[in-house]
Amino acid sequence: MAGTDSTRDLQRRPGPAVVLVEPQLGENIGAAARAMANFGLWDLRLVNPRDGWPNEKAVANASKADHVIDAVRVFGSLEAAIADLSLVFATTARPRDMFKPVFGPDEAANRLTAHVMAGQGAGLLFGRERWGLNNEEVALSDAIVTLPVEPAFASLNIAQAVLVLAYEWRRASGAAELPFSGNMDEPAPKADLVGLFEHLETELDDAGFFNPPDKRPVMVNNLRSMLSRGQFNLQEVRTLRGVIAALTRRHKRANPSRAQPDRRKK
Amino acid sequence: MAGTDSTRDLQRRPGPAVVLVEPQLGENIGAAARAMANFGLWDLRLVNPRDGWPNEKAVANASKADHVIDAVRVFGSLEAAIADLSLVFATTARPRDMFKPVFGPDEAANRLTAHVMAGQGAGLLFGRERWGLNNEEVALSDAIVTLPVEPAFASLNIAQAVLVLAYEWRRASGAAELPFSGNMDEPAPKADLVGLFEHLETELDDAGFFNPPDKRPVMVNNLRSMLSRGQFNLQEVRTLRGVIAALTRRHKRANPSRAQPDRRKK
Q1: What is the pLDDT of residue A9?
Q2: Residues contacting residue A23 through CB under 8 Å, at least 6 positions apart
Q3: Which residues of A touch B182 (CB under 8 A)?
Q4: B17 and which of A85, A233, B123, B165 could share a cystine (Cβ 3.0–4.6 Å)?
Q5: pLDDT of residue A154
Q6: Tens digit of pLDDT for each residue in B125-168?
Q7: Which residues of A touch B93 (CB under 8 A)?
Q8: Tell me: the pLDDT tens digits for B7-17?
Q9: What ranges do the domains of chain A cover?
Q10: How far is B142 from chain A (nearest CA, A)?
Q11: What letter would DSSP give residue B220?
Q12: Does the structure show a pLDDT above 50 at A6?
């Protein structure tokens, strides 16, 4: 992974090609390129882009995804664009009157992964802004991919559809490690936790918190359960003990001559 | 689900609230609303939107997601916006120096689902366009969500981040049925397939295809394997038999007096 470096070091890991069929707007081509770059795809192919190629708006909207824009290939037909691919999925929101399997993005990504990991070429087709892919283009594909959208609000633009599929690709292909993790130190051992509990309970006894006394066992158990749930690490246990000490120091400074446990509930 | 009807019939299924903290651009608010509507979320809350509310650009960019825009609530602080929620995740691309669990979108969606299905309020925070969420806002949250982006191309805009999380919510919450299925008739029984095979093999025998004859068994097996793989349904088997018949009729019309099997390889 490139990290902070330039595109020179960018690994082009095997992945499906993204094929835009007769895209109309350069902005959408650029946004698609950017969505691809976000999730590690880089092979962008255009079939008869309306405004030709290169396209300034595409470059502008690609943000920093130059490596995708620079590698764009333009074809005069879909057949030519997918000639070297042996698994092609057509993304569409409309059902078609033909016998074609239909997958959601997750299942599609799993199948693409198996294919690509076996060293074979795969591709995802996306259609025109206005009316998507035509039936001949879908017929050329091995299966349909459709997104599980709310039927009343089904419209996604090209870049959004690319984004969701690219995200699922990344997940399925095992590259979905997060950029950073929780950095959670391990929880403190029970010895330290019990130290915290006893510290707190001693101070609470002193403050007359457990009132009436026969309720003490239940209240102590509830407190201990509450303080266990956070799985505090050692630093956090020490912090809490410091909090307790600070609060009780303050209380004790304000009431230096307290010899009897205070019956007031804290 | 609403299908073709107006928003009046739209089911507002329980789901996480989406909280945008100090969003700057109306276009982004609108696009976020639209992304929510695509995947069945509807509870959008804004904390101190820069340009106030209502916002024309937000309405314009929400496309038809009026039901989300109309239900937007505006708050003066994050604390107020999440007051009724008991599980809040902060979406951020930057690691923080605090002990906070970090989840990917899929794990986050699973946890949100469990929480919401138990009847409790949950929310997803998204930060400002320029610099996301600050540490105080992350500290108020139960966990961080981050997307598994390519580190060199990590920038996603707000609506894109909302889209991926809304998609994962839909998947995790069991609402991810696809708008349509493959409508694949079941494969034809073997009797019909064998009928096809024998039809084809008879014609191929007649055409002298199996040459030399001792290779016939292997070639027949390969053909049968090839023709089995497509799991043709009855209609497709009939179509293929019609294709074979049409081709051989043509051939026979052109060569009516063929009494001997033709040794030419077809």
Answers
A1: 53
A2: A29, A32, A46, A49, A50, A128, A129, A158
A3: 99-102, 143-144
A4: B123
A5: 87
A6: 999 999 999 999 999 999 999 999 998 898 899 999 999 999 99
A7: 179
A8: 445 678 999 99
A9: 17-172, 190-258
A10: 11
A11: H
A12: no
> Do the beta carbons of residue A35 and residue A163 sit within 8 Å?
yes
Q: What is the pLDDT of residue B5?
A: 40
What is the pTM for the complete model shown? Answer: 0.88
| B190-258 is a CATH 3.20.20 domain | no
CA A200, chain centre distance (Å): 40
**Considering just the CA atoms, what is the radius of gyration of chain A in Å?**
30
pLDDT in tens, A23-50: 999 999 999 999 999 999 999 999 999 9
What lies within 8 Å, CB to CB, of B13 at 6+ separation is B40, B173, B175
Q: Do B99 and B144 form a contact (C-beta atoms < 8 A)? A: no
CB B201 within 8 A of CB B244: no
Would you call A155 and B184 a contact, using CB atoms and an 8 Å cutoff?
no
Q: Give the pLDDT confidence score for residue A5 in this predicted structure.
A: 40
Query: Residue A151: which of B3, B100, B152 has the nearest Cβ?
Result: B3
CB contact under 8 A, B93 and A233: no
CATH 3.40.1280.10 is the classification of domain B17-172: yes
A155 to B63: CB separation less than 8 angstroms, yes or no: yes
The answer to whether A17 touches A122, Cβ cutoff 8 Å, is yes
From the list B7, B150, B176, which residue is nearest A37 (CB)?
B150
The DSSP letter of residue A103 is: E
Q: Do A3 and B152 touch (CB under 8 A)?
A: yes
Are residues B1 and A176, on separate chains, in Cβ contact within 8 Å? no
Alpha helices by DSSP H, A7-61 = 26-38, 56-61
Share of chain B above pLDDT 70, in %: 92
